[in-house]
Each structure stands twice: as C-alpha cells, then as structure tokens.
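Annual report, structural modelling task.

Input specification for the 3-methylcatechol complex:
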Amino acid sequence: MTQGPMKERATAAASGTAATLRFFADRQGLGASANKERVNLLATEILKGVHETIRSHKVTYDEYDALKAWLISVGQDGEWPLFLDVFVEHVVEEVANAAREGTKGSIEGPYYVPNSPLLPAETALPMRPDEAGTRLLFRGQVTNVAAKPLAGARLEMWHADHYGLYSQFAEGIPDWNLRGTIIADEEGRFRISTIQPAPYQIPTDGACGRLIAAAGWHAWRPAHLHLLASADGYSPVLTQLFFKGDQHLEDDIASAVKPDLILDPAQAEDGTGLDVTFNFVLAPA
Ligand code: MBD
Ligand code: FE
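The model returned the following structure:
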C-alpha cells in the first residue's frame, strides 16, 4: 500500500521543513506568557530525568556523543515537530483532555493546516480526478452531551492519501487535497465522500527514522482520519479515527489510538466502497 513510486516524495527533509514552517505560522508570539517558576520547575525535572538515566545506566562518552549528534540532526532534518508529536504529544493530550466529556480527543500531529476550503454538509473532500484508494463515505451528526443537534457545527478533516502522503507536506499533491472544513446542516449532520487513507509510515530517511532503526522499533501509524469538530459555545474536539482490523492499532508509533476512536465501516449499499457513521459529542466551552 504505502510502498510504491510515490514514497520518496515524503522525505524527512521536505516534510520536516514544511511542518516546522507550519508550526511557526500558526503560533505567533509563542512563549510570551512563560512563567519563570514553571519553566524552572519543568526544566529542572526534565534534566533530573536525563541525569538519573545517565547514572543508573552508566552512559558512556561514546553514547553521549551519539546522542549529541542525533539531537543536532533532528534539527538539521527539521524533524522536531515529527519527533515531539510522535513520541511526546500523546501524553500532553492525555493530560489536557483527562476531564473531557463527549468524544475522546487524540493528538494533532504535524500535518494540520488551518483555513481549509469551506464545504457544505453533503460534500466530497477535494481530491484528484484519479485519486487512488477505496471510496469512503464518512457521515454522522454533531450533538452536545445532552444529544441536542448542533446546527452549523464545523468539522475540519484532513488525512493522508492512498500512499500515506499528506498534501502540503509531500511534493506534487494539490494544496488542499483531502483537506476540508465541512459545515454541518441544521441538524448537525454531515455526509462526506473521501477515500480511505493508507497506514502511514513516518519518514525513515531522517533522524527519527535513524532512531527507530537503531532501537529496533517500527515506523508505522495505523491508517487514520484527522478531525477537529467545533461549534459556538462548545469546547472543540481534536481527534483521530482509525479502522478496525488495521495491523497497527496495538502498536501505533505515536500511541494515539483509543478504543472509542476505531471505526468499523460497512460495504456501501451502492457497491462503491465503504460507508461509516461517527457522531461527535461536544461539551460546553
Ligand atoms: C502523522 O500523520 C501523524 O498523524 C502523527 C501524529 C505523527 C506523524 C504523522
Ligand atoms: Fe496523520
């Protein structure tokens, strides 16, 4: 599936640079509110963890130099967004959403782009005329926790193509391919045609790939849809949805799978592919 002629378009350098630029474009004035006591506490604790690891495992100068070289290369390859979102963000999300009611959240990852094209409740995501992959009809309703339909709720959706590539982060894909902002109807309903994304392998030719190979891990994420559901007066939910039967549900390299977020699509009645319903439940802001 993901192997194929297009794989080389998702190089670490190309997607890493794009993800780094995207991150800064979306977050002007970052860190302006940093609190000295909090920085002191967290930086001290993190360093303590590093020092403890060195002591308890008797880390050598060779290992220290290997780590230093690797950390430098993460920056050179533009892979800090990838590294952090794959190996750290899931715990930030867990803490942030511990008390969330309604639909479970999951991590954002490095490939969100705001302001995707506005689309009506019944729509198709922008895609190429010859877009490869199994057709997927994704439909459902946005309600509040009391099951009240949320008229005009917004659903931002983005996902990889049949080769595991994201528009704006791999070469040669139209900018808004498989990305859109759907406005639900008066009953909060939506009906979106897209294709089923492929399992996703994080770039293996950069620093993250070298760590994964050196540690004997694998680079796979299960196939997933990214979604951000919102409505006025409600707390938006940023999440991912996965597919039952995927080989990597149990060992997602990014640790982002939750049981409530696994879809079980049926064959579409018209024989064109898959059909699945998922309802979003938003809690008050
Ligand atoms: C992805 O597509 C993704 O969703 C995450 C979290 C990390 C790397 C690639
Ligand atoms: Fe993703």
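The first helix runs from residue 12 to 26.
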